[in-house]
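seq/struct pair 1
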Amino acid sequence: MIYPYNLLQINHHTIFGASLIGEGVFIPLSNEGEAIQGNHFQDQHTLQNYGEQLMAAAKTNWAISEFGENREKAFRLFGYPQMVNEGRFFHLGLDVWLPQNTSLHSPHNGRVVESMYEKGPGNYGGMVVIEYLVNDFTFYIVFGHLDKDSIVKNGSAILSGEPVGRVGGMESNGGYFIHTHLQVLTERGYQEGFAHKGYATKEQFLTISNWCLDPRFLLFV
């Protein structure tokens, strides 16, 4: 099935409620980005401090790190084996930097198909996957790096605007800088396990629309 971006035309509740202040900033985490080139990626705490400085200078409380970035250098620095050993370096979600405990909300009526805690460094920590049917298309949104005690119950129906969970701190989010990872899956992508793969190999990324869609439409209402 082809997933055209008529999803862009749907009206939906904002995921972030009224929590965003200012216009936000872009923080590239790719091999060529300033975070790597400027040596701000020594560890997750160094990266967090770098991001907070950029957001403070722009008088905003949020930032975006993009879908599709090649983050090989970062992962080789951190040594997360689940990505390095499989060569999965191409980012499949949209990372939204937000203050810890920011509440996230469902953009549509849907059904919670997974709600769990992925333990261990480099994993999702608290994560939720919600199934949606909009304009005759079934798709899934992954909310990653959440506070494990805040996430919605698995198997439950969820209405547009209802809380999904809160952004987790480093002790709860897999050890990453403080953000949520938003990933949009096709039916095939969900069936083939991409809900638990936030990164793809170079070969997979050439045809990634079979499994994952660019999630930037989630930022707009």
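seq/struct pair 2
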Amino acid sequence: MKKALKVDLHLHTAEDPEDRISHDSQTLVERAHDLGFDAIAITLHDRQLTDPRLSARARDLGIVLLPGIERTIEGRHVVLLNFPSAAERVRNLDEIAALKAKCNGLVVAPHPFFPHSSCLRGWMDTHADLFDAVEWSYFWTAGVNFNRRAARWASEHGKPMIGNSDLHDLRQLGRTYSLVAAEPGADAVCDAIRAGRVTLQTAPVPTSELLQVLTGMVARGRKAAAPGRALATT
């Protein structure tokens, strides 16, 4: 039996146009290699990261670097994987569906039931067919876990759960991730997840670590909005 790929498909770096993050994409790729990851996606807010040097470095390290973006649609976040650069310009869920029909893109519902205005919440029911997978996020402890509702929804709708870190701090990497039964390659990873050949790997975050990660995110703050464009809410 072929080895399952260790995968994290929701990662942010200093190249993000909205969040201030201390590590850059090169540092993240190196850290992912150290932790044995086989495939990752850097999902900047509303922009796909295109860097041939980074792609080459990932290949040298044996890491599949999937195209990714965390797109803000009417204030809510959707993770789009293996989509073309046109994903930066989609303005609503119908446009995502139309673009998805033309490519092998994977639509993931990130942290869908967390208590924040950027989370999908009711859109999960009204647009259930659009989502290929539901995220189990790093951000949970033994006492507080907003992922449980996402897991129930995924079970009720026959959708796979994938573990992602929604990484803003390198300490997050490796606590919540996925094992995907696929050959190494962006299309193969997406096909396998869509088919349910994915296993969630996760452990609760110690409260002290979570507080450090969240405090760092708040302390670093957000970047100024580009002219004519409002920032997303998280």
